[in-house]
Amino acid sequence: MEHLELFFKSIFVDNMVFATFLGMCSYLAVSKKVSTAVGLGAAVIFVMAITVPLNWLLDTYILKDGALAWLGPEYAQYDLSFLSFIMFIATIATMVQLVEIIVEKFSPALYNSLGIFLPLIAVNCAILGGSLFMQSREIQSLGLAFNYGISSGIGWFLAILAIAAIREKIRYSNIPAPLRGLGITFIITGLMAIGFMSFGGMLTGGEAEETTEQTVATVAPSDKDTIEATEDAINLAKNEKEIKE
Amino acid sequence: MGLLSKKDTKLITDPLADNNPITIQVLGICSALAITAELKASIVMSIAVLFVLGVGNVVISLMRNIIPSKIRIIVQLIVVATLVIIVDLILKAFAYELSKTLSVFVGLIITNCIIMGRFEAFALANGPWRSFLDGIGNSLGYAVILIIVGFFRELLGSGSLLGIKVLGDPIEKTGVYAFGYENNGFMLLAPMALITVGIIIWVQRSRNEALIEDN
C-alpha cells in the first residue's frame, strides 16, 4: 500500500515537470518530435531507477548525520551531509557514463535509440532533483527509493510525451507570430500543470473525483479542436495538390 | 574606452536582452520557475548564480588546456558542485529561513543548464577575463527574468514586495483593498510562473521581430 501510494503520488501529484519544474531544459529542447521524446523519456526512467537507490545507499550509509556508525562507535559523530551535492552528482555522472558503456557493449539496438540522450542526462535537473528530493523527503527504505526513482521517471516520461504530441499538432494552428515555438510551449505547459494540480486531491479522497472529471471535460474539446485543425490542414494540402494537377 | 573594450561590453549587454539565457537560449528554466513566488528568493537565487557562474567560468577557463576532453563534463560538474556547496553553506549560516524556502533548488544550481552551457560554449575556448565577463553577463540576463517574474508574482499574488505590503493590508482593508481589490492567489501557484515567462517571451518577441521562430 505504501509503495502504491508513493508510486501514484510521484507520477501524478508530485510530477517532476508540472509540480517542481525539474528537467525543464531538456523537456523544452527535445520535445519537438514524439519519437525523440520517447527516447529521452525512456533514458530518464532508466537512469533514475539506477541513481536514486544508489544515492539512497550513499546517503544512508555514508553521508547522513551518524551514518558512519556501522564502522564503529567512534565514527558515529560524523555528519558528512554537506558533501551530498558533490557525491550525488559524481555518482550520477559516473553512472551515466557506465550505463552508456554497458549498453553500447551488450545491446547495440538499445544504444542506438537511447545512446545520444545519455550524455544529455547527466546534466538533466530531474535526475539530481530526484536524488535531492529523495534525501529531503526522508524516504525510508531501499525499495521505496527504487520505487520513487522509477515512478518519478515515469512522470517525467508522461510529461514529455504529452508536450511532444501537442507540439506536433500545434504546428497546424494559427498562433500569433511572437508566441510561436517557445512562447506557446511555456503557456501550454502552464495549462497542463494547472490540469495536473487537480490530481492533488487524489490521495486525500473526497472531492477528487469531481475535479478530475472536470479536467477530462475541459481537455477533451481542445483535443477535438486540434484533430479538426489537422484534418483541415490535410484537406487544404489535398486541395492544393488537386489545383496544381 | 576605460576598463572594458567594446567587444567586452557586448559580452555583458548581449545576454541581457537579445541573447537572454532564459527566453532565447532556453537554459536554466527549472530554477527560474520554481522559486519565483517571492521577489526576495529570486534575488538571492540570482546572486547565487552570479557567484557560481562568474567564479566557475574563470576556474574552467584557467584549466581549459589541461582538462582532457573525454572527462570534461565530470570536471565541470565537480567545479560547479564545489562552488554550490560554498553558496549553500553560506546561505545556511546567514539566511537559514531563506535556505529552507529555496530547499533543493540551491543544489540544483549544479545542473542549471546555463552554467554547463556557458562552460561548454565559452569558458573552454576563451581566456579568464573574457570568461568572467561572459559569466557575469549571462547571470545578469538570468537575474533580469527572475526578478521580473518574481516582481509580478509577488505583487499580484500576495500584494507585497520583498515582504512589505505595498498595496495595503488585505485583512484590515486599507490601501487598494478598500476599493474591493483582491489578491490573485493563483499567481503564487507554480503554473503561473510558466505563463508569466510565456508572456515575457511574447512581449520580447513582438518588440524584436528578428527573434521570432517558425513553429
From TrEMBL, chain A:
The keyword Transport applies. One of its GO terms (molecular function) is oxidoreductase activity, acting on NAD(P)H, quinone or similar compound as acceptor. It is a multi-pass membrane protein. It holds the Pfam family Rnf-Nqr. Keywords: Cell inner membrane, Cell membrane, Ion transport, Membrane, NAD, Sodium, Sodium transport, Translocase, Transmembrane, Transmembrane helix, Transport, Ubiquinone. It is found in: Cell membrane; Endomembrane system. GO terms for cellular component: endomembrane system; Gram-negative-bacterium-type cell wall; plasma membrane. The chain crosses the membrane at residues 6-30, 37-58, 78-103, 110-133, 145-166, 178-199. InterPro entries: NqrDE/RnfAE, NqrDE/RnfAE_oxidrdctase, NqrE. GO terms for biological process: respiratory electron transport chain; sodium ion transport. It catalyses: a ubiquinone + n Na(+)(in) + NADH + H(+) = a ubiquinol + n Na(+)(out) + NAD(+). It comes from the Bacteria. Its EC number is 7.2.1.1. It is an enzyme of class 7 (translocase). Composed of six subunits; NqrA, NqrB, NqrC, NqrD, NqrE and NqrF. HAMAP family: NqrE. NQR complex catalyzes the reduction of ubiquinone-1 to ubiquinol by two successive reactions, coupled with the transport of Na(+) ions from the cytoplasm to the periplasm. NqrA to NqrE are probably involved in the second step, the conversion of ubisemiquinone to ubiquinol. Belongs to the NqrDE/RnfAE family. This is Na(+)-translocating NADH-quinone reductase subunit E. It comes from Lutibacter oceani.
Automatic annotation (TrEMBL), chain B:
It is found in: Cell membrane; Endomembrane system. GO terms for biological process: sodium ion transport. GO terms for cellular component: endomembrane system; plasma membrane. It is a multi-pass membrane protein. Keywords: Cell inner membrane, Cell membrane, Ion transport, Membrane, NAD, Sodium, Sodium transport, Translocase, Transmembrane, Transmembrane helix, Transport, Ubiquinone. NQR complex catalyzes the reduction of ubiquinone-1 to ubiquinol by two successive reactions, coupled with the transport of Na(+) ions from the cytoplasm to the periplasm. NqrA to NqrE are probably involved in the second step, the conversion of ubisemiquinone to ubiquinol. This is Na(+)-translocating NADH-quinone reductase subunit D. It comes from Lutibacter oceani.
